[in-house]
Amino acid sequence: MKAQIALGMLAFLALIGVLVVVAIGEPERMAEVTRAFEARQIETGASLFEANCRPCHGPQGQGIQAVAPALNAPDLFDGSRLAAVGFGGTLPDYVRGVVAAGRPVPSAGTNYPQRMPAWGQEYGGPLRSDQVDALVAYVLNWEARALAGGGAPPTPSGPTVGADITVALPPGDAQRGKALSEGGLGCSGCHILAPVGPAWLASGTEPGIGTRAEQRFQAAGYSGKADSAEQYLFESVVAPNAYIEPGYQANIMPLNFADRLSSQDMADLIAYMLSLK
Amino acid sequence: MAIFRLHIPVLDQVKQKGLRPALKEKWVDVVTRVTAGLNPDDVRGVLRDDPPGRPNPRLTPHAEGFWLHMKPTYYHRMVDGFYPTFRLGWLSTFFGVFEIITGIFLMIYYTPSPLVAYENMLGLLSNVPFGQVMRDMHRLAAELMVIVVVLHMLRTFITGSYKKPRQFTWATGVVLLGVTLVLSFSGYLLPWDQLSLWAVTIGASMVEAIPPEVVGRNVNLLVRGAPEFGANGLLRFYLLHVVALPLAGIVAFGVHYYKVIHHGHSLPPEAEKVGEDTAKRVPMDSRVYFMPEILTRELWYVSALVAILFGAAAFLYNAPALEPHANPLVTPLHTTAPWYFLWLQGLLKVGDKVVWGLIVPGLLTGLLLVLPYLEVGPSRRYGDRRIGLSAGALSVAALAVLSYMGTPYYGVTTSPDQEAVAELLPQTHPGPLRSAPWEDLTLGSYEAAAWSSAPNATLQDLLHEFNTSLTTVLSPDRTDVAGVIVIEDWQADLKKVTLRVTWTNVADGSAGEFSESVYLHRDGRYGQGA
Asked: Which residues does residue B503 pair with via DSSP β-bridges, in sequence order?
């Protein structure tokens, strides 16, 4: 029995010892868990960005002209954008507010006619507040690289294709056109309405954009100038208001593609779209 | 005339007898009151293992006090050893109390709402001193409690202690087993991560199958508070976990323990004649008094166990890491019920949900409850109970097999390409890729087949494992199976890792592809208990 009392005492002392050891390590442990938590937030934010934000803001947040501004850009982090929109709070507050509530109206004087949708559940969006926080953490994690010279990709140099749909184009490469349509031009940011993916694919009874183009320029009520499917597609990209398909609105599609695409880009895009029957 | 008069008797005593004698008398009085009958000399005698006086003052706390009123004053020497009880009943009680204490600590930092429950868990781990170790202890003791309670029941069965006159004790024990299992199960949901949501969803999905449809639907509504788990379901499980079940458990424990003491701990089967029950007739020379021997032992057990549990939780054991926030729209691949309900999940794979998920388990539970009223053979001796003991052993084996069948290794059909990716990137735990050292994930694109030429051992291991799991994708329908891991620099301290499986469909020569990406941060710290 004396042994038991001694053992009990020893166990009690051991418990105190463990408590002390744990207590000494607690501040460091808590800091480490906090770091891990913040790291996981960034990871979660990255997946959410890929799933929800990439179509408009680009895969690396470099923005897409006329669709959505760059997030991976120095002006977001050096305070000049906050100053430009007249926001007096902190950057995290700004990003969280915009992600959660969206932008009810496009910013004046910018080339972004689309409104940012609300993403937070409290504003009718799909994301929980912890998901919004994760997105904010991910966007803010661009700071170092953005300030070190990230930012939007340069506007392509060299001659652009222009708005004349009758000019001769070089031979197109459909594969490269597909890549362009899914890449930095931002087409899929808006044309994502079909259940199967981009809206130019065939879906249900609706044929692909290639077949649609062949039918439309000959259809009654067509108001554009195209004499062929190629020209119809050319025109739809560089002068979208020339003909508005019933059920759609004018002035939604950016009007600047004539000045952004090279002849080769245009040829590749057309080749890709014509391949979609 | 004074408005009120303060009378402190000890001051009168001090005036009468002097300071020291009066204080000493008061001290003796206080100790005797606190211990419900032992004065300081008696206490010292207990601690020193002196022979008790006559009449034995150590019996008074059992007669006068609340805490020991159910504790017997002495035990039979034959039930005092490790055999036949293996101290399992005592251990169950210890773990029950331990869970209540650690549970109260955790309750302080928890709000049962889907809006903040997960955040509370993160706060508990990152901002509460001793928060993680408390959670680990609560979880560790819960797992051990399930094991101990089941073993306790098995022991009772094996030694035949459920037989007359202890049938009702057994029945209350089965109730306590049920309470323990459901307590543990209901606690699963509270962290509100993917693991909790889906493990509990599997368990709760059974009530939906209760026929007829109108009953199943409404019982499901009662359990989950809505067609699916949400705010109401979480609140219900929380209240079950912290109020209803502990109360039920405490009441059932009171009845159970009262019955145990009322009938006396049953002696080892070979110690008495068949049909006799001599547990209550303890000869003078076989008595082991609670004070001092048992009391001392229980105290040292408690301090040792608390120290062991605390040490284990602090240095060895981690409660399952928090998974991503619960998402009712995303079912993780290979979700399983808690291990002690895997046998149920196994039964569900046998056949019809109603028959195998409700009727069979219901019958089995009912059978367990009334076992002592059905199995009335008089002998408790092992040699006389070959059939019963064999049936018991067979049931244990069947439970083990069914539990295996409950795991994803049995009878789950998923596409092998997803399976191959899940090997490295499982959806229910961190897995090898997330746990790999971040620095070793050298940027680049690596073919699984060429694993041996990867730049470091970590990548070679990962690719080798990937390559091995790819063999399962190869089938008469699919050829040219290849796997690739692409590691990209994505952001400061953030890498994107993509696992891609490609193949050719033999039927039409078309290409097939499955890929999954994960983003890994330098400080992600997977697989380390947070």
From this structure: B512
The strand pair at B74-76 and B287-289 is best described as: antiparallel
How close A146 comes to chain B (CA, Å)? 10
Q: In this structure, what token pair is assigned to residue A207?
A: 């044929």
Q: What does the domain layout of chain B look like in residue ranges?
A: 1-50, 75-268+289-320, 416-521
Pair B232, B224: CB distance under 8 Å:
yes
Q: Write phi, then psi, for B495 (nearest 5 degrees).
A: -115, 145
Which stretches within chain A are classed as H helix?
2-48, 54-57, 74-77, 80-85, 91-101, 129-140, 143-147, 174-182, 187-190, 209-216, 229-238, 263-274
- Give pLDDT tens digits for B356-371: 888 999 999 999 999 9
Retrieve residue B319's tokens. Answer: 């409660």
**Which residues 119-138 of chain B have a CB within 8 Å of chain A?**
119, 122, 125-133
Give the pairing type, strands B511-521 and B494-505: antiparallel
Contact residues on chain B for A39, CB-CB shorter than 8 A:
493, 521-525
Nearest to B523 among A11, A18, A35 (CB): A35
Which two structure tokens, joined as six digits, stand for B242? Answer: 């912290």
pLDDT digit string, tens, across residues A10-48: 999 999 999 999 999 999 999 999 999 999 999 999 999
CA distance B482 to B417: 10
Please give the mean pLDDT across all residues of chain A.
Answer: 85
- Tell me the two tokens of residue A30: 């808590």
Q: Is the domain A24-147 a CATH 3.30.70.2740 member?
A: no
Provide the residue ranges of all domains of chain A, joining segments of one domain with +: 24-147, 174-274
DSSP output for B233-258 = HHHHHHHIIIIIHHHHHHHHHHHHHH
Q: Contact, A62 vs A140, CB < 8 A?
A: no
A-contacting residues in B 240-299 (Cβ below 8 Å): 292-293, 296-297, 299
Q: What is the ipTM of this complex?
A: 0.84
Q: How far apart are CA A6 and CA B47, in angstroms?
A: 11
Report the C-alpha gap between B255 and B171 in whole angstroms.
10
**Residues of chain B where predicted confidence (pLDDT) is lower than 50:** 529-530
What class is the B75-268+289-320 domain? mainly alpha
Measured at the alpha carbon of residue B6, what is the angle toward residues B4 and B10, in degrees to the nearest 5? Answer: 165
SS3 at position B163: coil
Angle between the N-to-C axes of helices A2-48 and B295-311, in degrees from 0 to 180, rounded to the nearest 10: 30
A126 touches chain B (CB under 8 A): no
Would you identify the CATH topology of the domain A174-274?
Answer: Cytochrome Bc1 Complex; Chain D, domain 2 (1.10.760)
Q: Are the C-beta atoms of residues B526 and B435 closer than 8 Å to each other?
A: yes
What's the angle, vertex CA B323, arms to CA B322 and CA B327, rounded to 5?
Answer: 130
Equal fold, A24-147 vs A174-274: yes
Q: What is the pLDDT of residue B207?
A: 84
- Alpha-carbon distance B189 to B195, whole Å? 8
φ and ψ at residue B302, rounded to 5 degrees: -60, -45
How far B327 CA sits from the closest chain A CA (Å)? 10
